[in-house]
Amino acid sequence: MSSTSDANLIVALNNAAIQLNRYFGIFILLFGMVGNVLNTCVLSQGALRLNPCAWLFLVSSIANGIGILAGVTTRPLSTWSADLTNTNQFLCKFRAFLLFNGITIGSWLIMLATIDRWLSSNVNAIQRQRSTLKNAQLSAMLIIIVSTIIEAQQLYCFDANLTNTPLKCYTQTVLCGIISDLFFALFTILVPLILMIILFAAINIM
What is the pLDDT, as a whole number, of residue 14? Predict the structure, then answer.
């Protein structure tokens, strides 16, 4: 009797997970893409496009949109067994690369926008002069290049048709998983966040 109830509980939890991935994934995808598309439309207007901070937010919205498309689209598709990244090696690797690279670039560009706001509001005239569109574009290009080099590891680490892993498209070794998660936690989340906190503190002190 106990084994039957346990089996029923497992089936119920699996069904709940499928429904959550299907409908909540669609919800996140729609709202995430609508938000980024609206940001892109507004920030690409002529006057705003010439503003360094607005330009950085524009490119960040594009990068985040790519990350959302790569990361969330496969969730609802997997509930209908239509996720090609589970079986296609190229799509699996390319999806992981776009996902991690897009989110990383987006995070660092927001951090650069914070730096630009700090420069533009600085009491030092020399510092204010460094808030230019050219500097923003050069900094963004550097971030894109560095992030692309770092996240290129995903092209090796991820593989399709894996067994005994949470997903069929997943890191193929434990070491790859640790390195991927460590870089994501440090390079994508912690470092930009810490730098922004330091800048906000500096602005408040000033």
Answer: 74
Residue of higher predicted confidence among 9 and 104:
104
Please say whether the beta carbons of 75 and 21 come within 8 A: yes
Please enumerate in sequence order all residues whose Cβ is within 8 A of that of 118, keeping only pairs 6 or more positions apart, or say none: 199, 202, 203
Q: How far apart are CA 160 and CA 56, in angstroms?
A: 35
- 92 is in which domain, residue-wise? 2-205
Closest CA to 162 of 152, 182, 149, 177: 177
The pTM for the full model equals 0.88
Lowest mean pLDDT among 35-39, 153-157, 197-201: 197-201
**SS3 letters for 58-84?**
HHHHHHHHHHHHHHHCHHHHHHCCCCH
- In whole angstroms, give the CA distance from residue 69 to residue 30: 10
Read off the CATH number of the domain in which 62 is found.
1.20.1070.10
Residue type, 12: A
Nearest Cα to Cα of residue 106 among 151, 154, 61:
61
